Amino acid sequence: MDQKLVAVIDYGMGNLRSVAKAAEHVAPKHTRILVTHKPEEIEAADAIIFPGQGAAKACMKALLNTGMIHPVQKATQEKPFLGICMGLQVLMSHSTENEGVACLNVVPGEVKQFELDNNTSLKVPHMGWNQIQQTQEHPLWHNIPQNSRFYFVHSYYVQPNNQAIIAGTTTHGITFPSVLSHNNLFAIQAHPEKSADHGLTLFQNFLQWNGQ
Amino acid sequence: MSLAKRIIPCLDVDNGRVVKGIQFVNIRDAGNPVEVAKRYDEQGADEITFLDITATAHDRSTTVHMVEEVASQVFIPLTVGGGIRTVEDIRTMLNAGADKVAINSAAIFNPGFVQEACDAFGSQCIVVAIDAKKTSPKDEANRWEIFTHGGRKETGIDAIEWAQKMETLGAGEILLTSMDKDGTKNGFDLELTQAVADSIKIPVIASGGVGKLEHLSDGILKGHAEATLAASIFHFGQHTIQEAKEAMQAQGIEVRL
After folding, report:
1. What CATH class does B6-250 carry?
2. How distant, in Å, are the alpha carbons of A54, A55, A111 from that of A98?
3. Per-residue model confidence as pLDDT tens digits over B5-27
4. Quick one: DSSP state of residue A163?
5. With a cut of 0.95, is the ipTM above it?
6. Does residue A145 belong to any structural domain of this protein?
7. If interface means Cβ-Cβ distance under 8 Å, which residues of chain B face chain A?
8. pLDDT in tens, A94-126
9. Which residues 6+ apart lie within 8 Å of A78 measured at CB?
10. Model confidence over A135-145: pLDDT tens digits?
11. CA of A72 to nearest chain B CA: how many angstroms apart?
12. How many domains are there within chain A?
């Protein structure tokens, strides 16, 4: 049987080790998880995991410096692609973080900051376990109950122009899109690698997904 | 539907082993950090905090291996505190698989370090630990000050002002321990917790004094904390985390069950 190669894109931001370890933990036999920053390996991979952490500007800079912008953009068009946290946000056209940052423009739309009412006791960053309401059926939701809790840490959220690609929403003061799905692309604001069993199930589903 | 309040068991680590007698049933080697972390994960812990009490830098490398081992098998957020003094210390822990580090005394000796750390790694992984003691005399307005060296050395710094300053420098969370309550099992210092939580926008983790389940709910409902940290109530098998969450839920608190 052929080996399946899944590339975790390393551009110097975020806890890649956690993501790779979680994927490895549930990877079927013959699936190899490879942390890489080499364009040829990304090109050769059957599926892509695109993690990320930190600020938008630093992420975009790191993508530029490691020559990852084009390979990532290309992969989003071609094969099963899982964006995580900042790996979701930088797919958008533009972020309002750091006085405005141009992003990868894979998904038309914006990244905005939580602006909560002054009287609220809600905290920003939105940090901790919150529910994801699945607003679309998707192979990656297989065996994950509706409104399951995932671990989130972020101060910004995505707002796609096309509402039809929202696959999950979460409420923290406002209800925001926490999962986007379009063709072979699935991107989640939460950290499945830190979301215990439901997160592992999501990785398992992704590793078996053909992108359709 | 909203964010769940968190329960975080805290484990002391010396030379890569969990210390402070932990009495789980069916765990043969109580000091094995992976076993302990897995058990807490199974019980529904929302995060796990390791407090490194290792004395020497050399022994600290075993803590790094421990974090690596835990992170490869336990998939919930891990925080490591104790002895975090440089950006390199943070990088080492994050690369090992920690998600957050707790900075304590280093923040006091060099507040710029907090900003440096947040700029380098993002606010989401920088927790500032504050050890506070009440210093105001009876009949006067409450005042709490920061203490170092396990509560032995005073700094004269006002705890609320300090928490606000840490927020401004970019800290993602405050781990607030009452040195008056720590180890007493009489419950959190709720006045302190509330005073700090209400004065900042970032989450406060209440710590110090949990002796029974209702203390946890008090920390959330009366102290306005986002999360509660406890050690002995869980370590000695007095309660499971599941029980603690059920008790919190019965008080109307949203938890992850």
Report:
1. alpha beta
2. 11, 8, 11
3. 999 999 988 888 887 655 554 55
4. G
5. no
6. yes
7. 1-6, 41, 46, 71-73, 75-77, 94-97, 99, 121-125, 172-173, 201-203, 224, 226-227, 256
8. 999 888 999 999 999 999 999 877 777 788 889
9. A184
10. 999 999 999 99
11. 22
12. 1
